[in-house]
From TrEMBL:
<dbReference type="GO" id="GO:0003677">
    <property type="term" value="F:DNA binding"/>
</dbReference>
<dbReference type="InterPro" id="IPR001034">
    <property type="entry name" value="DeoR_HTH"/>
</dbReference>
<keyword id="KW-0238">DNA-binding</keyword>
<feature type="domain" description="HTH deoR-type">
    <location>
        <begin position="3"/>
        <end position="58"/>
    </location>
</feature>
<dbReference type="InterPro" id="IPR036390">
    <property type="entry name" value="WH_DNA-bd_sf"/>
</dbReference>
<dbReference type="GO" id="GO:0003700">
    <property type="term" value="F:DNA-binding transcription factor activity"/>
</dbReference>
<dbReference type="InterPro" id="IPR050313">
    <property type="entry name" value="Carb_Metab_HTH_regulators"/>
</dbReference>
<keyword id="KW-0804">Transcription</keyword>
<dbReference type="InterPro" id="IPR018356">
    <property type="entry name" value="Tscrpt_reg_HTH_DeoR_CS"/>
</dbReference>
<dbReference type="InterPro" id="IPR037171">
    <property type="entry name" value="NagB/RpiA_transferase-like"/>
</dbReference>
<dbReference type="InterPro" id="IPR014036">
    <property type="entry name" value="DeoR-like_C"/>
</dbReference>
<keyword id="KW-0805">Transcription regulation</keyword>
<dbReference type="Pfam" id="PF00455">
    <property type="entry name" value="DeoRC"/>
</dbReference>
<protein>
    <submittedName>
        <fullName>Glycerol-3-phosphate regulon repressor</fullName>
    </submittedName>
</protein>
<dbReference type="Pfam" id="PF08220">
    <property type="entry name" value="HTH_DeoR"/>
</dbReference>
<dbReference type="InterPro" id="IPR036388">
    <property type="entry name" value="WH-like_DNA-bd_sf"/>
</dbReference>
Length: 255
């Protein structure tokens, strides 16, 4: 691997396992301790990781998301279960918004077999997948193209959403917690998600538990702005209890 590929591997590995030791990375990458430490130093300078007593771990202050193609393989079993459950919340005849993301893509795969639905999305992967389903009405927001995440973001996409009435919106996120709410490291995504808060009758946050406790620079909204949260069973019980004190429905999906 070239250096940039090694650093991408380390970053992906941390998204899957949260912490990793230097000796383990030496073994996985088949390189020297010095090479691994040099890669870690660069990742630390980029704000992606921090050193811990056990090795290294992700920085809770999220500064960059993985691209769509890489995120799709991380915690896929959990995303699939969350997506299947989320699809069960959709009623016939509804206008459904699927936010850009790999978990919402799992929702799309289930809804693809349904009838009498209108799907709105800013995600190119979702729209491409649903394009072959003639029984569904399909709208794409258009807008500024985010090439890393195969989606449209920014003011133009938000303006389209402001012209619609959405029955149920499935909202994705790379980072969320009670203190920072829903956040993102990318400013262009904020306008789209905030537009959904205004036009959607029911707002459902979809996220696997690995994203809880992280936060990006740009705040979208407090958690209390959601009507529902769908997450997996690995979300700590203490956190689940705190959410139950809010006026929203927390759906915990068994894997």
């Amino acid at each position: 691997m070239i250096p940039s590929e090694r650093r991408d591997f380390i970053y992906r590995h941390l998204h899957e396992y949260k912490t990793v030791s230097i000796s383990m990375l030496v073994e996985l990458l088949n390189v020297s301790h010095m090479t691994v430490r040099r890669d870690i130093r660069i990742l630390e300078e980029e704000g992606k990781v921090i050193s811990s007593t056990d090795g290294i771990q992700l920085n809770d202050a999220l500064r960059q998301e993985l691209p769509w193609s890489e995120k799709a393989h991380i915690h896929h079993r959990h995303k699939r279960a969350i997506g299947k459950y989320a699809a069960s919340l959709v009623e016939d005849g509804q206008v459904v918004y699927l936010d850009a993301g790999t978990t919402t893509f799992e929702v799309a795969q289930v809804l693809a077999e349904r009838f009498n639905l209108t799907i709105v999305t800013n995600d190119f992967s979702i729209s491409q997948y649903l394009m072959s389903k003639p029984q569904l009405n399909l709208f794409h927001t258009g807008g500024q193209v985010d090439k890393r995440n195969y989606s449209c973001v920014g003011k133009s996409a938000a303006m389209v959403l402001h012209t619609l009435n959405i029955d149920i919106a499935f909202i994705s996120t790379s980072s969320w917690d009670l203190e920072h709410g829903i956040s993102t490291p990318h400013e262009e995504k904020v306008l789209v998600k905030q537009a959904l808060l205004k036009v959607a009758r029911r707002k459902v946050l979809l996220s696997d538990s690995s994203k809880y406790g992280k936060y990006g620079m740009f705040r979208v909204c407090p958690i209390s702005d959601m009507n529902d949260i769908v997450c997996d069973v690995r979300l700590p019980i203490s956190i689940q209890e705190k959410f139950q004190e809010l006026n929203l429905e927390l759906h915990i999906v068994n894997i």
